[in-house]
Amino acid sequence: MQTIWLGGAEWFAALRIGLGLWWLESWRHKDKKSWFSGGGIAWAAGIAERHRWPVVRRGFDGLVKPRPRLMAHVVAHAELALGLGLVLGFLTPVALAAGLVLNLIYLVLMIHDWAEQGQNLMMALVSAVAFSGMAWQTWSLDEALGLFG
Predict the structure, then answer these.
(1) Where are the transmembrane segments (predicted)?
(2) Confidence category of residue 114, pLDDT binned at 50, 70, 90
(3) Does residue 139 sit within a domain?
(4) How far apart are CA 39 and CA 68, in angstroms?
(5) Are 16 and 135 a contacting pair, CB within 8 Å?
(6) CA atoms of 25 and 103, how far apart (whole Å)
(7) What share of the chain is helix, strand, coil (3-state, %, to 5)?
(8) Residue range of the domain that includes 139
(9) Are 99 and 26 in contact (CB under 8 A)?
(10) Is residue 99 part of a domain?
């Protein structure tokens, strides 16, 4: 593969790092005090309550709504872990797959709000491309530790 400036593996690593920075920004911009006191989950509950798909409403009501503080921590810490994992290139395939799943969950929950969907779709696409390009081969702890051959 011939490219300008970097080789193919380096471009995939740059894409991985950029996606990691995007996840870190998702974590950073949250108002942690409000988020961890249940504000973020309360906001999502309002969206789930009006969701056009009953399975989403039932799933949210059964899994997330009864545990707002726990789920707030799960979401925020997942975003932080994804960001750090991708920037550092540690357990990269796991982080890329988990990030793709989280973006798809966000996408399904927010299906009626297209203002949010550009970000989720783009992050899901970058995850899929970085995974397909084995973005853990260069500039990563995975490479340094000999993980994922």
Answers:
(1) 80-109, 121-139
(2) low
(3) yes
(4) 8
(5) yes
(6) 14
(7) 75, 0, 25
(8) 11-145
(9) no
(10) yes
Separation of alpha carbons 27 and 72, rounded Å: 11
Neighbours of 146 (CB within 10 A): 7
Q: Find, among 137, 145, 148, 144, the residue nearest to 6 by Cα.
A: 137
- In a domain, residue 3? The reply is no
Alpha-carbon distances, residue 7 vs 1, 14, 43 (angstroms):
7, 11, 43
pTM: 0.92
* Contact predicate 86/24, CB 8 Å: no
Measured distance CA(85)–CA(81) in Å, rounded:
6
Split into its structural domains, the chain has a count of 1
86 vs 136: CA distance, rounded Å: 9
Crossing angle of helices 114-132 and 92-109, rounded to 10° = 160
Cα separation, 15 vs 5, whole angstroms: 14
Secondary structure E strands in the chain = none
Residue 2: inside a domain, yes or no? Answer: no
Give every CB contact of residue 58 below 8 A, 6+ residues apart in sequence.
none
Tens of pLDDT, residue by residue over 26-63, are 999 999 999 999 888 998 898 899 898 999 999 999 99
